[in-house]
Amino acid sequence: MAASSPRLPRRHLVAALSATLPVSLLARAAPAREAAAGCPDSNCAASNRADPARLDSGSVDRSAPGAAPDRAWPTRPVTLTIGYAPGGLTDVMVRLIAERLSRELGQPVVVENRTGAATALANTAVANARPDGQTLLIGTNSLAINLALTPGATPRDPLRELVPVREVYHTPFLLLVHRDIPARTLPGLIEAARRAPDAIDYGSSGSGSVNHLLTALLLQRAGARMNHVPYRGAAPALLDLRAGRIGVFYATPLDARPLLAEGSARAVAISSPERLDSLPDVPSVAETHPGCEGVLWQGLFAPPGTPAPVLARLDEAVRLVLAQPDLAARVASEGVVLMRGDADALRERLRGDIALWARVVRDAGIQPG
């Protein structure tokens, strides 16, 4: 987009909009843009932020990494706690995995949706739970982002207050560009943003959300500027992208599908380090802007002090579930990638995210929503 090009028109949504967007998106849509709270969507990591995790300190049981699995465990139902509302991608995926994990463990695995404070309530509940393996957390990037956005005098470290068990899955984002923007590639979009700083509006699922920070990271490293428009979740942002009220949005492949199918937006890049098999024509952001890739990841965590044999049993069961070929095939069409990393890999992923997002938040001057 040249400097003289006007900003996208602020058209109203047409009545036909609801006929083609998924009901799940419309049901989650809020009236317009956010000024502050709310985190209804699974890629929103930081809206409606209370004082973050504030996890009670505890020593992590790192003993016996090669401990034998406790075959007597569990003897009663296991709870998987997530910080997201029912019906979103995270909830659907965790329930799918919980069903299969129940068969591996021989006990029901129940999903508990404990929403609020940008997942901090769920994180805190598990950190403070009895360390018997019965209450577990499916944690996300928000563990690192919460820490970056609320440093405080005594910031809490999730690496000390939760025990990583195993990586579970990740979802990349598609960088969607409205059809009225001439740029058809990521380098073309960046060049347009450099020529006309802040002339292009980009949306996010909320200030401090994963897709906000990924876009901020890309713009920082590319030396470009766009105008940030935060929303209360992905659904209203997608509505405005479709209507031309914003020009750019990082969306999950599932959320992006309707807009791509009708041609109201195009995907110029995917945020993962490699291209997706299901979207082979969409280049990875790393191909032209290495170091700007990132995904929405999910990992399994336990309370500090959980016995090593229980952790070993959990690790084994989750590994077997994620190795099921039919599960990988079932979720691939939604842009979900099952992960293979063990506790050490999850710990290093979280440690890397803490360092990365602290720099991005500081350099971009991002404030919690």
Proportion of residues in β-strands: 15-25%
Through-space gap between termini: 30 Å
**CATH level 4 superfamily of the largest domain:** Bordetella uptake gene, domain 1
Looking at the overall shape, the CATH architecture of the largest domain is: 3-Layer(aba) Sandwich
Apparent shape? globular
- Which fold name is given in CATH as the topology of the largest domain? D-Maltodextrin-Binding Protein, domain 2
Q: Which spans have pLDDT < 50 for at least 5 consecutive residues? A: 1-42, 45-64
- Give the total of domains: 2
How many helices? The count is 13
Alpha-beta classification: alpha/beta
What is the total tally of β strands? 11
Give the ordered list of helices and strands: HHEHEHEHHEEHEHEHEHEEHHEH
Please give the order of strands in the largest beta sheet.
Answer: 2-1-3-10-4-11
The residue-averaged pLDDT reads: 84
Query: What's the Cα radius of gyration?
Result: 20 Å
CATH class placement of the largest domain: Alpha Beta
Q: Major sheet: size, sense and barrel closure? A: 6 strands, mixed
Keywords: Signal
Family: Belongs to the UPF0065 (bug) family.
Organism: Roseomonas acroporae
InterPro entries: BUG, Bug_dom1, TAT_signal
